[in-house]
Amino acid sequence: MKLSNKTIINFELLLIFIVIVLLYKISQNNQNLYNASQNRILMLQTADRLRHSSDDLTHFARTYVVSADEKFKQQYFDTLAIRNGEKLRPDNYNSIYWDLNKDVRNIHHKDTRILSLDDIFKSLPYDKQEIEKLKLSKDNSDDLVNLEIEAFNSMQGKFRDKNNSYSILKKSNQKYAIELLHSKKYYLAKHKIMKPIDEFILLVDKRTTSKINQINSNSKPLLYLLLISIFLFLLGNYFILKFLNNADKKELEDKKVLLNIQNELNKELMQKNKIASDLNRELEESEHELEEINKNLQNTIEKEVEKNTLIQKQLFKSEKMASMGEMIGNIAHQWRQPLSAITTSATSIQLQKDMGNLDGDILNKMCDSITRNTQYLSKTIDDFRDYVKGDNPKEIFYLNEKINSSLHLLDSSFGKNNIKIVVNLEENITINGYGNTLLQCFLNILNNGIDALIQNDIDNKLIFIFTKVIDNEICIEIKDNARGISKGIIDNIFEVYFTTKHKSQGTGLGLNMVYKFIVDEMNGKIEVKNDTYIYNDVEYTGASFRIKLKTII
Question: Can you list the domains of the chain with their CATH numbers?
Answer without folding.
Answer: 2-220 (no CATH), 393-550 (3.30.565.10)
